[in-house]
Amino acid sequence: MDLMSSTADVGRRLRAFRMGAGLTPEDLAAKAGVSRAAIYRYESGKPPKVDTLGKIADLLGVSLPTLLGVGIEYVASAVSFFERMRQLEEDVDQITVMFGPISYLLTTDRYDELLPKVLDESIPEDVGDRKAAIREIGALMDILKTRKETFRRRTPSIVSLVSAAELDEFGRVGFVGAHNHPSVNLAERQKAARDEIEHIVHMLREQPIGVQIGVVIDSMPGASFQIFKRADKAQVAVSPFRLGAFANIRVGVATITAAAEAVQLYGGMTDRLWRKSLKGDQAADFIEKTVLKNGAAA
C-alpha cells in the first residue's frame, strides 16, 4: 500500500474512533490541544506527527497500533465498528457476510424503521450507561442508513450466508430487543420478522444481479463476520455486535484485519459453508416449508 492510501486509512480510523467516543471534532481538538481545523485535516488523510497521534489515541481509548492499522484493529464501540464497516464498503468490489439472522445490507426499509426501537429495548433499564447508549442509537442509525444507501448505489457483489436455525428463531421470537418487553406488541414484531424472511425468500427466487444467498443447515460459527474484497486488498471484520433480534450494541470487542492468514482462513470457511448451503428455489422452498410454516403454526 502506498503512503497516500495509508494516511487516508489512518484518517478514517481516527474519525471512526472519535465517533465511537462520542466526541465532536471540536471536543477532540480541545482535549488534544490542537485546532478544530487540524482535526479535520487529520481525518481527511493528513495525520499529525506520531507523538500527537499517540496523544489522540490515548484520548480515544485505543492503542496507537490500532489507530495506525498495524496488525489487528480492536474495536470496543459499535458506533466505531459500523463506521469502519461503512468506510470499508465505500470502495469494495465484493462482500461476503455472515451476520445473523439476516445481513443488514439486504434488509427492507421497514427494518430501519423498527431497528431504533429494537436497539432501545436491548439496553437494560438499570445499566449505568443507558443514557449514553441511547444517544449512540441515533449516530448508529445514521451510519447504518448510509451503509445501505451506499450499497444500493454502488451494488458491489454480495455473498450472504444465512443460518436456517437463526431464521427459525427470528420468525418465532420476532424482531425484538429483549424478552417480554412491556412496550412490545409481540404479534406485530413476529410479523415484522416474517416480512424480512419473506423478503429473503423473494430474493432467493428472483436472484437479483450481484446478490447470492446461501441458507446453511449445518452448524455456523458463533461470531458474525464480513470479508471485504477489492482488487488490491482483502480484510476481515469479526464482530460480537448484533442488529437482529436480541440486538447487542454495548458489549464486546470487534476486530478488523488484513492479515493474509485470517483472510485465507475465513475465506476457506465461507467457501465450505457456501458449497453445502441451499440456494435459489431449493432454499426458498425449504424456508417456506419449515421456517415460515412453523411460524404460522405458532
Q: Which residues sit in consecutive blocks of at least 5 with pLDDT less than 50?
A: 1-5
Strand segment count: 7
Query: What percentage of residues falls in helices of 4 or more residues?
Result: 55-70%
Helix-strand topology string: HHHHHEHEHHEHHEEEEHH
Distance between the termini: 54 Å
Based on secondary structure, the structural category is alpha/beta
Helix count equals 12
Q: Could you describe the largest sheet, including whether it forms a barrel?
A: 7 strands, mixed
Strand order of the largest sheet: 1-7-6-5-2-3-4
User: How big is the Rg?
Assistant: 20 Å
- Taken as a percent bin, the fraction of beta residues is 5-15%
Average pLDDT across residues?
92
Shape call = globular
Domain CRAL-TRIO: 1-167
Pfam families: HTH_3
Domain HTH cro/C1-type: 14-67
Protein name: Helix-turn-helix transcriptional regulator
How does the SSE layout of this entry go?
Layout: H1 3-20, H2 25-32, H3 36-43, H4 50-60, H5 64-68, E1 72-75, H6 78-89, E2 94-98, H7 109-121, H8 130-154, E3 157-163, H9 164-173, H10 186-206, E4 211-216, E5 224-230, E6 233-239, E7 254-257, H11 260-276, H12 280-297
Parallel strand pairs: 2-3, 3-4
Antiparallel strand pairs: 1-7, 2-5, 5-6, 6-7
Helix pairs in contact: 1-6, 2-3, 6-8, 7-8, 9-10, 9-12, 10-12
Protein name: Helix-turn-helix transcriptional regulator
Domain CRAL-TRIO: 1-167
InterPro entries: CRAL-TRIO_dom, Cro/C1-type_HTH, Lambda_DNA-bd_dom_sf
